[in-house]
Every structure is written in structure tokens, then in C-alpha cells.
Amino acid sequence: MKKHSLTAIALILLFLFFLYFSAENVKMQRDNEKTYILADAVIKSAVQAYAIEGFYPPNIEYMENNYGLIVDHEKYVISYNIFASNIMPEVEIFLK
User: Fold this and answer.
1) What is the secondary structure of 1-41 as a DSSP string?
2) Helix %, strand %, coil % of the chain (to 5)
3) Is the pLDDT of residue 35 over 90?
4) 54 FRET partner, CA 20 to 30 A, in 1, 20, 42, 73?
5) pTM exceeds cut of 0.85
6) Of 24, 76, 51, 52, which Cα lies nearest the Cα of 60?
7) How far apart (Å, rounded) are the C-alpha atoms in residues 85 and 56?
């Protein structure tokens, strides 16, 4: 009877361990997807600005103020490097 109890406890602990890491994996995938969506939104806003105004925006704040871009600055850090106003900027998104 004692072996069955230990086996049951071990199986429950194994199940909880699996459940925890599965939830963490889903959270990580969701955060990665949100990062890709934000990067796409930044690029689309920059291209839209270029099409309308003839130059790429100088910074992220410009796109937030003029093109409706929404960024959660408490969660993300955006590297927006612009070489010239007529060359597509480099965009990188990082989770804080």
C-alpha cells in the first residue's frame, strides 16, 4: 500500500511539473508573438509615413503622435535606427 501512495504522489508531482512548464512555454510563445506584432506595426507605420510625407519618421514618438502607433513602453524597448530620411530604418523590439 505504501508503494502505491508514493507512486501516486510522484505522478501528481510529475504532472504538476509538466503543467507548470507547459504554461511557461505558452507564455513565452505569446510574448514572442506580441513582439513580432509590435515590430510589424512599427514598420507599417514607418512605411505609411514615408508614403504620405516622403520621409521615414525620425523616432517612435513621431509615429505614436501622428500615425496611431501604440507601444507599451513599460514592457518593450524599441531600437529604431534611422540612417537617412529616405532609407528604411532598422527596427528591433526587446522585452524588458
Assistant:
1) -HHHHHHHHHHHHHHHHHHHHHHHHHHHHHHHHHHHHHHHH
2) 60, 10, 25
3) yes
4) 73
5) no
6) 76
7) 5
